[in-house]
Amino acid sequence: MDEELNKLIESLPILDEGKELLIKKFDELHKKNVIIEFKYNRTLVDKAAITNILNASITEIEKQKQIIENSKNKLNQTLTEVHTQRNLIEEKNKELNKLLDDLRQTQQQLILAEKMASLGELTAGIAHEIQNPLNFVNNFSEVSSDLLDELLVNINSGNYEFVEQDVNDIKQNLIKIAHHGNRADSIVKAMLQHSRIGTGAREVTNINKLTDDYLKLAYHGFRSKDKSFNATLKTNYDKALPRLNIVPQDIGRVILNLISNAFYACTERSMKEEQKTTKGKSSETPYIPTVSVSTKNGSGKIEISVLDNGTSIPNKDLEKIFQPFYTTKPSGQGTGLGLSLSYDIVLAHGGELNVITKEGEGCEFIIRLPSA
Amino acid sequence: MEAKNIQGKNIGDIKSSFSKATEDGFNPTLAITFCSIMQNRKELAHFFKEKDIDVFGSTTAGEIIDSEILEQSIVVMLLDIKKAYFKLFFSESQDTYKLASKMAHVAKESFANPAIIVVSSGLTIDAEDIINGVHEFDSSLPLFGGLAGDDLTMKASYVFNSEDETSTGLLALILDTEHINISGLATSGWDNIGVEKTITKSDGNIVYTIDDEPAVDVFVKFFQFPESVYDRSEIIAMNFAQYPLQMKKENGNTVLRAPMMADVENRSMIFAGGIPEGSKVKFSVPPGFDLIDKTRDTFNVLKETMNNPDAVIIFSCKARHLALGPIMEDEAVKIRSIWNKPLIGLFTYGEIGTANDSICDFHNETCSLVLLEEKK
Description:
The structure holds 2 protein chains of 2 kinds.
Chain A: H1 3-10, H2 16-156, H3 160-194, E1 203-205, H4 207-225, E2 232-236, E3 244-246, H5 248-278, E4 290-297, E5 301-308, H6 338-348, E6 352-358, E7 362-370
Chain B: E1 3-8, H1 11-21, E2 30-35, H2 41-50, E3 54-59, E4 63-65, E5 68-70, E6 74-79, E7 86-92, H3 96-110, E8 114-120, H4 128-137, E9 143-147, E10 159-160, E11 165-166, E12 169-176, E13 180-187, E14 191-203, E15 206-210, E16 213-214, H5 215-223, H6 233-240, E17 245-248, E18 254-257, E19 259-263, E20 268-271, E21 280-285, H7 291-300, E22 311-317, H8 318-324, H9 328-339, E23 343-348, E24 351-353, E25 361-363, E26 367-374
Parallel strand pairs in B: 2-3, 8-9, 22-23
Antiparallel strand pairs in B: 1-6, 2-6, 3-10, 4-5, 4-23, 7-12, 8-12, 9-24, 10-11, 13-26, 14-15, 14-21, 15-16, 15-20, 17-18, 17-21, 19-20, 22-26, 24-25
Helix pairs in contact in B: 3-4, 7-9
């Protein structure tokens, strides 16, 4: 309590009780005043603090808002870019799909081309094969015609003892003509069958015969294209080979393809050897192109082997030879589908197609077909 | 169990008050003693020791006794609790965590179902370690208490029993809850304000940067504090303590962390509790002047668990005193009126207690209340 106020109350001309009451009241008021003063001051301080905190918060929020705004803009920009990219990708996708379609078409065409190519090879061989029986037919027809003339002369001159002889000879000739006619017929049928690859049904087939037929077709086919071609053919067929239920024209085509390849490899090697000879580098023993075809009855498997001593396949290329469109032939000469299709055909028969190559010595392709 | 409160401006007052209190044959065994660092604690302890009375003592930043708020005084609650029902733990160490763990061990060894009321000295300790040390041992152990004060001189606080005192240690009153019921609650009333900020560098209870800005600079900027007083830490405490940071802890509790001191060298701030690096915090402002009614209403709920306690102990944050000033006395009046039982308390630098809808934690800016009742 204020000293001055105290003195003032003491000096008042009132009773002591009154003074006491007054002092008490003043005390109470003073206390209240202190509280109000405190509240006022704290309110001021708090107000300043709250204002500062809120102002700082507003600044912070503004800053964050700006950051968000910037991010939003960036995001929108990115979104537009993404949209553009997506459109581009879609366009590319369309192009790629079209390319894929084109590719598929081309592939189909290539497969057809390969079929035609192998048919071409066949045709040449077949022509040669048909030529033989035709020669027979022609020759025997001529001989028979002569014999008929002779027969007429003998009948007219009453030389009956020769008539029977002549008739028998003519009959023999006709049998031979019929035989060779049938042979030509079966060759034509085989050719027709070949042109229907992939649609053929399985038949119980003599593998040795099939192999030998296609070896001949391949040889004559190759010779028709390259008159100078010559090779030693070695065959070794296992007589104990069981008949197999296969699509003969398909397996035949594989054999044809492998043998043709073997011939091609031999030709290539011949050319290289010749070049060496002209350069005076020839080896002591002359090069004799040799293709060996053999069959073998393995355990549960039939093996058909085509071995050549031509230009071998480099080991690094072994992985690729069964891939479609892989070829070592000059452009335009091969489709690159031969081995690939062969591989697929053998696989479809539950078999396998393997290759063994020795650089500089040649290579061997082996078809293994399940015998059961 | 009977409780009698005595108070005084000095040891002489206490001696005479004690004689009066024991005139009727009242025979206390424990003296809960809260006093200013100015008071002669040794003499006080010696006085009670002579009478075979155990002392649970702490220095303060102001004393509370019944409906009165005192300063630079001594307040004592005398209890005639059976010596078998309680045990005092006193230990000194820089390693608060180990100390707390040891305290929990001793409590469990003493009684099957103990409860702990703890006071801790040390101005820069991370009081979170007290909670962690106890909870690591037994998370269900009831724990209450506070950090000793030193009249805001920010030099050293003390806890003491009848034999010893320490400026870096714990003093615990371990109670046997088979015989003594204990219940408590902590309440704050502070409101957060403004945007969330991130503690970008901290170590225990030392905060170096807030949003990459030196902590002291942030406070000075926000609360317009003249830079000339940077080196006067006690002024920092007096002016900033009522603007604590509100922090959401990993355990889900929301706690307040009051700034206590500034380090001029590295512009860091020391808080009355740990704030881990990466914590999200908001500033808080003191509640309105209706706080004291809210406090009374909050504590009133405790009547349902304990209607007739023998004694009421209050650990109230010094920052509340600073924020409420002369109205603080009204709060004491209102709290005391709930049970009308002897009430003793002190203004602390941090409180340990359980707030509504949370688990026991270390707080700032709260009033943490403890009720004791002997089982009949």
